[in-house]
């Protein structure tokens, strides 16, 4: 009977070991299955995040490109406007110079007609002096107008250069070039 007890004990122990092995095997399969599920979820999440990041990067690039195009267009328009102002200033200065010269020519004709009059002969010297003063004033005004036009042109060129530098700096910062 002792041997029977021993056999039963051994059988019980073997059954316990077999049950434990089955539990371990099932637990291992269960853990492996759960790990695979978690891994699959992680891969899916990473893929989704990667897709969203790619999409966001594409949108950012498109937006940057649109901003660059708009800024470039505005810079071109500004250059064109400044060029027009510069040209207008040159034309106006030439017109002023032409008007001044025309005024001088008309004044000379009137003075000559006036000088032929008998009453004026006595005042000829005084009128001649005043005419020379007027001529100097007109020439001075013409020179000032030309100088102002050149100053405006210089300022316009400086403004264009400054805007161009700022735009280049902006694009350099924006695109890292």
What topology does this entry show?
Elements: H1 2-116, H2 118-121, H3 124-175
- End-to-end separation in angstroms reads 94 Å
Helix content: over 70%
Major sheet size, sense and barrel closure = none
Low-confidence stretches: none
The ordered H/E elements are: HHH
Number of helices: 3
When the domains are counted, the total is 1
Mean pLDDT metric: 76
Strand content: under 5%
Task: Return the structural class.
Answer: mainly alpha
General form: rod-shaped
Radius of gyration: 49 Å
Oligomer: single chain
**Got a strand count?**
0
Protein described:
With 177 residues, the chain is mainly α. It has one domain. Helix content is 97%, strand content 0%. It has 3 helices and no strands. Helix 1 packs antiparallel against helix 3. The longest helix has 115 residues.
Short description:
The protein is an all-alpha fold.
Features:
177 residues; mainly alpha
